[in-house]
Design goal:
Family: Belongs to the GrpE family.
Number of domains: 6
CATH architecture of the largest domain: 3-Layer(aba) Sandwich
Protein name: Sucrose-phosphate synthase
Shape: flat
Structural class: alpha+beta
CATH class of the largest domain: Alpha Beta
CATH superfamily of the largest domain: HAD superfamily/HAD-like
CATH topology of the largest domain: Rossmann fold
Subcellular location: Mitochondrion matrix
Strand order of the largest sheet: 25-24-23-22-21-30-31-32
Main location: mitochondrion
GO biological process, one term: protein folding
Oligomer: single chain
Helix content: 25-40%
Length: about 725
C-alpha cells in the first residue's frame, strides 16, 4: 500500500498530467460535431457551432440588443432565422444523433486512455518508492559491512598472534615450572619470529588500504609529521634533529593519520649550559635505599600497597637533598589564602606520574599528578595544601636555607608508576622550603616568579584570526603560562561540535583549553577521559524561571510582525533547550526586541537577551537569566579557585560586553568592533574591574594585555 507522502505526490503529479489529458479528450470528442454546423433544436431555434462554443441564434439576437423582458418582432425573428439557415447547411436529427454518438465514443476512449495513464503513473510512483527503500537498505548494509574486506584480511593477523602465543607451551610458563637457558632462548626466538611475521602481515594488510608507516629517526623535525615530546641535550648533533622515536608515524594516502612521537635535541649552547656537555636521562633508573628495589619491580597499584604496608616509606634517607631557593613571600596578584597552597608543575611525557612526597616532615605518600589539558601534553600538576603547622625536625642535611635541623616543607621524588624514577641530579630527593608555585623541568626545580592567571578568552577574532599570533600565544602559554599555574578557558558562542571542528582545523596553533564555555554561556565542558563532557551541575541551575516554548512563541510572534525576509530562526545546531537564536535585520531590530521583551515580561519568563554581529543583520540570542558569558566565567573562576584579580577576560565584539564588565581584569583586542570600543570609552569607569584596550590585534593583543597586567614578562 502506498504511504501518505506517495499518495499526496501522486495527486499533485496526477493533477498536472490529467488536466491537459482531459482538455485533449474534450477536443477530440467534439471533433465529429464540428462538421454538424447547424441542427434544429426542439425550441425551434437554429444552433450554430462557432470557434469557441455552440450558441443559439435566438440568444445571439437577444444579446445583440433586446432588453430583458422584451420580445423581438416576428418579422425580425423570421428574417434572422432565414439568414442563419442560409449561412450553413442543415443536418437532420439522425445525422446529429450519429455525430453525438461518435463524440460519446471518442470521449469514452479518451477516458480509458486517461485511466491507463493514471494507472501507469501510480505504478511508477510505487516503483520509485520501492527503489528508494531498496537504496536505503543497501546503503545501510554497505555502511555496516564496509570493512568486511579489511576484517577478512586482519583475520590472518589474528591467526598469527594465536600461533605466536601457542608457540610457548603452557607447561613452560606455569607457576613453579623450570626451564633451562637453551630451552628459554629457543622459545624466545620462536615468539620473536612469530611477532615479526605478524607485523609483516599486518603492514601488508594496511598497505592494501593505502596505509604506510614512516620512521623519522635522524630527520629534521617537521611539525606536520612529528609530535615532539621533549628535548634531550647532545652536543654532537644538529639542533632540531630527531634523536629518539617513541612511536612511528602512519599515513593514509599521503595524509598523516598519526604523527610520529619523538624526542628532539636541544641547541648545543643550551645543552652545554644545562648539562656541561653531558646528556642526562629524564627517566632515572638508579634507586637508593633498602626498600626501593623491591618496590621498583612492581606496578603502580603494588607500589601503593607496599607504601601502605611499610608505613612511612622514606626515600633515600642517607643522601644529601637538593632544595631550590624559596619564592618571594608574596607574589604579585596572589592573595594570602593561596600562600598556604603549594602547587608543583612537572614537565614530562609520562602519562600518569606519581608524586611520592613527605609534606612538612610527615609520612611519605603517593599522589597522582593531574594532566593539565592546556599544557599541550607536557605538563602535569599537583596541589598540596599546608595548614601552616610547624615543620617536623629531621636529621637530613638541607641546602634550602633551613637551620636547626628543620626539614623542608616538601621533600619528594616522582615515578612513572612502574620502574622509572626522577630524582635530583645529585641522586637525592627534591626539596621545597616554602609554599607557592614551583616548576620542575629537566631536573631543574625552581620557584615561579610570575603570578598565575585564569585567562578567559573569546575565540573568533580574539584568540583566532591570525595564526601567527595564536601560535605565539600557544608557545608562551606552554612555556610560561601553564607552569606559573595558569589555566585557559574559551568563552565562545560556538556549539561543542563546531568547537571540536575548529580544534581539528587549528590544532597546530590553537592550544586546548582546560574548560570550554559554549553557546553564549549556556554550556560548560571539561575534558575527562579524552572527551569533552558537560558540567551537569552548571546546566542544572539554568532551568529556574526559563520556559523554552514560551521564548520560542515570543520569537514566532515577532517574526510574524516583521516578516520572514527580516527575521529568521538559526539552524538547530546553533540552539539548545537553553538557547534560542535568530537573525534579525538591523532596520527592524528595535521593534523585534521591544515585542519580545514585552511578551516575555507578561509571561513572567526570566531571560537574558544578547545582540551581536555587524552589518545589516544581527544575531539575537535568548538564554536563561542565570546563563550568559559573565555568569559562566564566574562559575569557571570559582571552580578553578582563582580570585577576580587573577582572572582576565578577552573579547572583541558587543556580545563580549557581558563578560568584560565583571569585577575581574579585561582586555579588548585592537581589532574590536566599534560598539565595544564605545562601551569601553563611556562605561568602563563605572565597573569594578579594569579594562585595557590593546594596540595589538587578536592574540597579539592578548599577549600585550597580559604583559600590561603583570602576568607576562
Amino acid at each position: 500500500m502506498l504511504g501518505p507522502s506517495v499518495t499526496h505526490s501522486a495527486l499533485l503529479l496526477g493533477r498536472g498530467l490529467l488536466e491537459p489529458i482531459a482538455s485533449g479528450c474534450l477536443q477530440r470528442a467534439a471533433a465529429p460535431l464540428v462538421s454538424a454546423l447547424v441542427c434544429t433544436s426542439q425550441r425551434g431555434g437554429i444552433w450554430r457551432f462557432g470557434s469557441s462554443a455552440l450558441h443559439s441564434s435566438a440568444a445571439a439576437a437577444a444579446e445583440g440588443g433586446a432588453k430583458e423582458g422584451e420580445q423581438p418582432a416576428a418579422g425580425e425573428q423570421a428574417s434572422g432565422e432565414q439568414a442563419a439557415a442560409q449561412e450553413a447547411p442543415q443536418l437532420s436529427a439522425e445525422e446529429c444523433a450519429a455525430a453525438l454518438a461518435e463524440a460519446q465514443t471518442a470521449l469514452e476512449e479518451e477516458k480509458k486512455r486517461a485511466e491507463d495513464l493514471k494507472d501507469k503513473l501510480l505504478r511508477t510512483l510505487a516503483d520509485m518508492e520501492n527503489l528508494r527503500e531498496r537504496t536505503s537498505r543497501l546503503t545501510a548494509e554497505t555502511k555496516q559491512f564496509a570493512v568486511q574486506g579489511l576484517v577478512k584480511n586482519l583475520l590472518d593477523v589474528a591467526d598469527n598472534l594465536e600461533r605466536a602465543a601457542g608457540s610457548i607451551p603452557d607447561s613452560d610458563v606455569a607457576e613453579g615450572s623450570e626451564c633451562d637457558r637453551d630451552r628459554a632462548l629457543q622459545l624466545l626466538r620462536s615468539l620473536r619470529d612469530g611477532v615479526l611475521m605478524t607485523d609483516t602481515v599486518l603492514m601488508k594488510v594496511l598497505a592494501k588500504e593505502g596505509v604506510s608507516r614512516f620512521d623519522p629517526l635522524g630527520d629534521k623535525f617537521d611539525p606536520n609529521l612529528h609530535n615532539a615530546l621533549f628535548e634531550v641535550p647532545d652536543a654532537t648533533k644538529e639542533p632540531g634533529t630527531i634523536a629518539v622515536v617513541h612511536k612511528r608515524g602512519y599515513m593514509l594516502n599521503e595524509r598523516v593519520v598519526r604523527a610520529a612521537e619523538r624526542s628532539g635535541l636541544q641547541p648545543r649552547a643550551a645543552a652545554a649550559a644545562h648539562w656541561g656537555g653531558r646528556a642526562r636521562a629524564l627517566r632515572v633508573q638508579a634507586v637508593s635505599g633498602q626498600q626501593r628495589p623491591q618496590v621498583q619491580q612492581q606496578g603502580l597499584e603494588a607500589y601503593r600497597t607496599a607504601e601502605q604496608q611499610n608505613g612511612a616509606l622514606r626515600i633515600g634517607p642517607d643522601h644529601q637533598q637538593q632544595a631550590a631557593a624559596a619564592p618571594a613571600a608574596a607574589q604579585p596578584g596572589q592573595d594570602a589564602s593561596r600562600q598556604q597552597r603549594l602547587q608543583l608543575h612537572y614537565r614530562t611525557p609520562w602519562s600518569q606520574p606519581l608524586l611520592h612526597h613527605s609534606l612538612a616532615g610527615g609520612e611519605w605518600r603517593g599522589v597522582p599528578m593531574q594532566r593539565v589539558v592546556s599544557g599541550g601534553g607536557w605538563w602535569t600538576a599537583a596541589n598540596l595544601h599546608w595548614d601552616g603547622s610547624t615543620v617536623a625536625s629531621s636529621s637530613s642535611s638541607d641546602s634550602s636555607g633551613g637551620s636547626n635541623g628543620t626539614a623542608p616543607l616538601l621533600e619528594f621524588v616522582i615515578t612513572d608508576g612502574q620502574d622509572a624514577w626522577d630524582k635530583a641530579p645529585d641522586g637525592g630527593n627534591y626539596c621545597i622550603a616554602t609554599p607557592g608555585n614551583w616548576r620542575l623541568r629537566d631536573g631543574q626545580l625552581a620557584p615561579v616568579a610570575m603570578p598565575p592567571v585564569c585567562l578567559v578568552s573569546d575565540l573568533d577574532d580574539t584568540m583566532i584570526g591570525d595564526d601567527a599570533g595564536t601560535a605565539a600565544f600557544r608557545q608562551w602559554w606552554h612555556e610560561e603560562g601553564v607552569p606559573a599555574g595558569g589555566r585557559l578557558v574559551y568563552n565562545t558562542g560556538r556549539a561543542l561540535d563546531l568547537f571540536e571542528q575548529l580544534l581539528q582545523d587549528k590544532g597546530q596553533v590553537l592550544p586546548e583549553p582546560d574548560m570550554l564555555i559554549s553557546a553564549i554561556g549556556t554550556r560548560i565542558y571539561t575534558k575527562r577521559g579524552g572527551r569533552w563532557q558537560e558540567d551537569e551541575g552548571y546546566t542544572a541551575q539554568l532551568g529556574r524561571g526559563w520556559q523554552l516554548e514560551g521564548v520560542r512563541e515570543a520569537c514566532y510572534k515577532a517574526l510574524a510582525t516583521v516578516g520572514k525576509d527580516a527575521m529568521h530562526f538559526r539552524p538547530p545546531n546553533e540552539m539548545s533547550e537553553h538557547k534560542v537564536t535568530c537573525g534579525v535585520r538591523l532596520n527592524v531590530l528595535d521593534k523585534v526586541l521591544a515585542t519580545i521583551r514585552s511578551d516575555l515580561q507578561q509571561a513572567g519568563i526570566r531571560h537574558r537577551l544578547v545582540v551581536s554581529g555587524s552589518g545589516d543583520w544581527r544575531f539575537m540570542d535568548l538564554v536563561p537569566a542565570e546563563a550568559g558569558k559573565l555568569q559562566a566565567l564566574e562559575y569557571a573562576r570559582r571552580t578553578m579557585e582563582f580570585e577576580p584579580h587573577q582572572t582576565v577576560a578577552c573579547g572583541d565584539s558587543g556580545n563580549d560586553i557581558d563578560m568584560l564588565e565583571g569585577g575581574h581584569l579585561s582586555i579588548i583586542v585592537g581589532n574590536a568592533h566599534k560598539e565595544l570600543l564605545e562601551w569601553a570609552a563611556t562605561q568602563r569607569a563605572a565597573h569594578a574591574g579594569e579594562v585595557y584596550v590593546a594596540q595589538g590585534q587578536r592574540a597579539w593583543g592578548i599577549l600585550e594585555g597580559l604583559q600590561r597586567y603583570g602576568f607576562k614578562a
